[in-house]
Amino acid sequence: MIAAASYAWAASPVVLKLDAAIVSKAADGTEKLTPLESALVKPGETIRYEIVATNQSDQPVHNLVPVEKISASTAYQAGSATPVSAGVQFSIDGGKTWSAKPMVTVHTPDGDVTKPADPSTYTDIRWASGTSLGPNETAKYTYEVIVR
Questions:
Q1: Cβ proximity of 22 and 3 under 8 Å
Q2: Pair type for strands 111-116 and 14-25
Q3: Model pLDDT, residue 37
Q4: What is the pLDDT, as a whole number, of residue 131?
Q5: How far apart are CA 127 and CA 85, in angstroms?
Q6: Which one-letter DSSP state was computed for residue 117?
Q7: Are 113 and 106 in contact (CB under 8 A)?
Q8: What is the C-alpha to C-alpha distance for residues 146 and 123, in angstroms, rounded to an integer?
Q9: What pTM was computed for the model?
Q10: CA 146 to chain centre
Q11: Facing residues of 145 across strands?
Q12: Distance (Å, rounded) from C-alpha 127 to C-alpha 119?
């Protein structure tokens, strides 16, 4: 079970706000977002997280790199992070190392094989392009997870 709400972090002069919503899809393909607030979610449900970064100063801010933990009770939904142009990277070791496509070594009877890590093993996500925000400008970053 997961309980979540909206959170905001003040890192002067940038304020980061995290919102979460349950994503449900109708038969016609339209999406409905239900804010988590303090709701409990069930295994198999999809949660969309949105990070909103706002520069509240009158000066530009450079090299913004939002980072989020991916809860162990969820699995990252492959391909859901936006904007892709912001250099999305993932960690599979709690943020020690980062890659756009983390790799793992698998031991087989024929020897070790390196292959892409399963997105369900991602522990952290970041947008590493180092976004610049002008005065009073806002940037949005989203990703989805599936509740285990």
A1: no
A2: unpaired
A3: 77
A4: 86
A5: 9
A6: P
A7: yes
A8: 13
A9: 0.86
A10: 12
A11: 47, 76
A12: 16
Distance CA 136, CA 56 (A): 5
Look up residue 92 and give its amino acid. Answer: I
Q: Residue 134: enclosing H or E segment and its boundaries? A: none
CA 2 – CA 144 distance, rounded (Å) = 14
- Asked whether 143 and 131 are in contact (CB, 8 A), the reply is no
Walk along the chain (148 residues) and give the pLDDT tens digit of each residue: 343 434 445 545 899 999 999 999 888 989 999 888 766 789 999 999 999 999 999 999 999 999 999 999 999 999 999 999 999 999 999 999 999 999 999 999 999 999 999 999 999 999 998 889 999 999 999 999 999 9
**Closest-CA residue to 81 (of 124, 111, 30, 33):** 124
Q: Which two tokens stand for residue 59?
A: 């000066």
Burial classification of residue 91, based on how many CB atoms lie within 10 Å of its CB (0-12 exposed, 13-18 middle, 19 or more buried)? buried
What's the pLDDT score for residue 2? 41
Answer yes or no: are the C-beta atoms of 122 and 70 closer than 8 Å: yes
What is the Cα–Cα distance from 130 to 103, expressed in whole angstroms?
23
In the prediction, which pLDDT does 1 show?
A: 35
Q: How far apart are CA 122 and CA 127, in angstroms?
A: 14
Q: Which CATH class is domain 7-147?
A: mainly beta
